[in-house]
Amino acid sequence: QVRLVESGGGLVQTGGSLRLSCAPSGRTSSIFAVGWFRQAPGKQREFVARINWASSRTVYADSVKDRFTISRDNVNNTAYLQMNSLRPEDTAVYYCSAKSVTSSFRGDWWRQNDGWDYWGQGTRVTVSS
Fold first, then answer.
1. 71 Cβ partners below 8 Å, 6+ apart?
2. Please, is 53 exposed, middle or buried when counting C-beta atoms within 10 Å of its C-beta (0-12, 13-18, 19+)?
3. In whole angstroms, what is the distance from residue 23 CA to residue 77 CA?
4. Could you report the per-residue pLDDT of 99-109, keeping only the tens digit for each?
């Protein structure tokens, strides 16, 4: 089992920045990738970014490309989501996710909620206009 704990959400003005953290614990050796999703009020949870845990290869949703950066701190074994140039439409609860190396990989699994095996509790980000 892998446990994920997010932190770093809050209230920020349009154009501002926030950094979210995701700290995996438990069987972290089984992690293939860590991702970030978000869910805005009244909308479905959507993919934001992913980082492969071994290679640090990254993938982003088009809506956040060039504004958000996902990274991994190898010393602290923590994933980060640096969010710059924030917009009101970025307002959402942000969830950290993890995929196990033993899980199945089908199609564009990283974009799908059911493509991931573990989830954090979420951290709220509010961008005021």
1. 51, 56, 79, 80, 82
2. buried
3. 7
4. 999 998 999 99
Q: Which amino acid does the sequence have at 78?
A: T
State yes or no: pLDDT of 31 exceeds 90: yes
Q: Summarize pLDDT for 38-75 with one digit per residue, the tens.
A: 999 999 999 999 999 999 999 999 999 999 999 999 88
From residue 31, how far is each of 35, 52, 106, 113, 124 by CA, in Å? 11, 9, 17, 16, 24
Q: What is the pLDDT of residue 127?
A: 98
C-alpha span between 96 and 20 (Å, rounded): 9
Q: Is 99 exposed, middle or buried (0-12, 13-18, 19+ CB in 10 A)?
A: buried
Strands (E), 27-122: 31-39, 46-52, 58-60, 68-73, 78-83, 92-100, 118-119
CB contact at 8 A, 45 and 113: yes
Cα-based distances in Å from 85 to 5, 14, 60, 125, 127? 25, 7, 16, 13, 10
